Amino acid sequence: MAISCLQVENLTKSFGDLVLFRDISMGVPEGRRIGLIAKNGAGKTTLLNMIAGKEGYDHGKITFRRDLRVGYLPQSPEYPEELTVLKACFYHGNSTVELIKEYEQCVETEGNPGLEDILARMEHEKAWDYERKAKHILTQLKIRDFNQKMNRLSGGQLKRVALANTLITEPELLILDEPTNHLDLDMIEWLEDYLQRSTLSLLMVTHDRYFLDRVCSEIIEIDNRQIYSYKGSYSYYLEKREERIAAADTETARANNLYRTELEWMRRMPQARGHKARYREEAFYELEKAVRQRTDHSDMKLEVKASYIGSKIFSAEHLCKSYDGLKILDDFSYIFSRYEKMGIVGNNGTGKSTFIKILLGEVKPDSGTVDIGGTVRFGYYSQEGLNFDEQMKVIDVVRDIAEVIEPGNGKQLTASQFLQHFLFTPETQHSYVYKLSGGEKRRLYLCTVLMRNPNFLILDEPTNDLDIVTLNVLEEYLRSFKGCVIVVSHDRYFMDKVVDHLLVFNGQGDIRDFPGNYSDYRDWKSARAEKEKEAEKPQEEKTSRVRLNEKRKMSFREKQELERLEKEIAGLEEEKKRLEEALCSGTLSVDELTKSSKRLPLLNNELDEKAMRWLELSELSS
Q1: Domain containing residue 355: CATH number
Q2: Which of 13-22, 120-129, 247-256, 497-506 has the lowest mean pLDDT?
Q3: What is the three-class DSSP state of 127?
Q4: E strand or H helix at 622, and its extent?
Q5: What are 318-375's pLDDT values in tens digits?
Q6: Is the Cβ–Cβ distance between 490 and 316 less than 8 Å?
Q7: What angle do CA 320, 322, 326 make, to 5 degrees?
Q8: pLDDT at position 93
Q9: Which of the residue ranges 267-281, 430-444, 539-553 would you say has the lowest mean pLDDT?
Q10: Is 102 domain-assigned?
Q11: Shortest CA distance to 569 belongs to which of 603, 531, 610?
Q12: Which alpha helices (DSSP H) does 64-129 contain, by range?
């Protein structure tokens, strides 16, 4: 039986009258990778915050395995703006950073109290290498300017710094809340590969279904305040969830039939009852409670019709745009066709959002023209669109736009009826915006975009924070949408379901039109890379032979330096061995401990430098 890293027992959490979950229990065994799924507002982020110790709970128990290293990536990481990228890796108080601070404070304190114990812990947690590891993983995540201020980073760069901060300590249990939000496709695939290769335990909330399917071996669902576990991938979960719902629906239908029979009996029976009648009466009340607590599987209903769109949509001709030497568009021309559904992909910083704003007229191009058809009505769902007044009631947000909404086919809906199509219950509609979860705010924003009956939808990262149920409904809506669609997204599954073709932003104004969805593009890209690799092989062999023949001879001074380095490295390695043995011996005085602990990191740096130079010279001598 697998050892449990984390055990949650009988956990209950409520906000006033709203009960998120009651007496739920779950565990994360060692090496198990678990995805957590639920509708927006069901408490996914709240549960992760409670497990990470960031939020309290009403009652229950959360237990970690002793000495477990835990890494937590919040959905929206925050750092002081004045911090540099490298200092941000020392900002959040993980155990290693706290230990480094404890060591620095001890060294500066007279008498160095507890230094021997701190040094042993530093050695155990490999704290001496923390900065080097931070730089290494930041580089892997394509963050190379370690002195850049945090307030200068994009949303994607900020998420990557936070991810590096989480991974540096090599956690045994990793807790991730929407890790793919704001990451570009290359970084999502890097993280996917990293997690697939690792042996760590994982508890993760994500809406990215490809990521979920390829990384997780178990799915846990929160539904109707209860927990359901499925030991398999996301695809397995979908199959078994449908079976569970079908079984629950059958049981609910049986309970409803029995309830109607028992209700009739309750009404007919006289007040004075015998023992058997009282027993049946108690059973009736238990049945009534079960019927009222039946699972609600209602989904969103997007029945919003696009307004008429003519044959002329818009055309972009010879567009050019640059920022500080970075080309966004370089003589770009394109003519949109009716009912076209285009996806836009590319790394962060290649200009995808700027391109959208140029099409909408929010940003002016340096040169070129955009000609928009007279019947076009844009609906723009942006990354920065959540600018509601938090003190407004949900229903008032919609009423400020329109009291009556016309979804098409001659129908009319009140604001309240329209909100119910987006799964906002009457109670939630009369609640305040600030009480909504991040996903519920996104759903409300989508509601305000669609209620204007646009015929040209531009969706910039629409999948961030939306639950999987909402995404499935949105995908079906967009596939049958009688208008044009542009989607900028890093959600590969969403792109595959919705778009007909891609505009690929390669940077510096290089934009290519690809006829197919994202999976088609990825397969083509992999095949091309393999073909280029094969084509380059003979050339590489020829080049390497030429280089071997033309390799320059070592100079006399370099030979002397190589011999000197071999002796110096041997001496430094011997000194390091002596230091480490002395630090672990427990025989050193406080002064000797302080002196040795200060010398060790300097010694490691000196060894690294000399070893690197020795490698360079040894290549010349071979």
Answers
A1: 3.40.50.300
A2: 247-256
A3: helix
A4: none
A5: 999 998 778 889 999 999 998 999 999 988 778 888 899 998 999 999 999 999 999 9
A6: no
A7: 130
A8: 66
A9: 539-553
A10: yes
A11: 610
A12: 85-88, 95-108, 115-124
Q: Which two tokens stand for residue 591?
A: 């002064």
**pLDDT for residue 305:** 78
Report how far residue 519's alpha carbon sits from residue 278's, in angstroms, rounded to the nearest whole number.
63
CA-to-CA distance for 503 and 346, rounded, in angstroms? 9
In this structure, is residue 17 part of a structural domain?
Answer: no
Alpha-carbon span 475 to 283, nearest angstrom: 45
**Cα(31)–Cα(34) distance, rounded to whole angstroms?**
10
Does residue 39 contact residue 467 with C-beta atoms inside 8 Å?
A: yes
CB-side neighbour CA atoms (13 Å) of 158: 18
Q: Residues 6 or more apart from 65 whose CB is under 8 A from it? A: 3, 4, 5, 6
8 A C-beta contact, residue 614 and residue 139: no
Give me 375's structure tokens. 């019947």
Separation CA 600–CA 6 (nearest Å) = 36
| Contact (CB, 8 A) for 341 and 320 | no
Within this chain, do residues 333 and 454 fall inside the same structural domain, yes or no?
Answer: yes
Query: CB atoms < 10 A from the CB of 401, how many?
Result: 13
pLDDT at 21 over 80: yes
> Rounded to whole angstroms, how far apart are CA atoms 541 and 535?
11
* Nearest C-alpha neighbor of 6 from the set 198, 172, 194, 242: 172
d(CA 167, CA 333): 43
The DSSP bridge pattern shows strands 201-205 and 33-38 to be: parallel
Whether 561 and 498 map to the same domain: the answer is no
Q: How far apart are CA 312 and CA 338, in angstroms?
A: 8
Q: Which of 455, 458, 468, 457 is nearest to 488 (CA)?
A: 458
Whether 379 is covered by a domain: the verdict is yes
**410 is written with which tokens?**
């001659």
Question: Is the separation of the CB atoms in 143 and 165 below 8 Å?
Answer: no
The boundaries of the domain holding residue 575 are 556-621
Most confident of 18-22, 58-62, 464-468: 58-62
Mean pLDDT to the nearest integer, 481-498? 92
Predicted confidence at residue 542, as pLDDT, reads 46
Work out how many domains the chain is built from and give that number. 3
Of 73-87, 243-257, 313-327, 363-377, which gets the smallest average pLDDT?
243-257
Structural contact between residues 491 and 207, judged by C-beta atoms closer than 8 angstroms: yes
Average pLDDT, the chain: 84
pTM value is: 0.73
The tokens of 70 are what? 């835990």
Contact 565, 610 (CB under 8 A): yes
Angle between helices 115-124 and 590-621 (to 10 degrees): 30
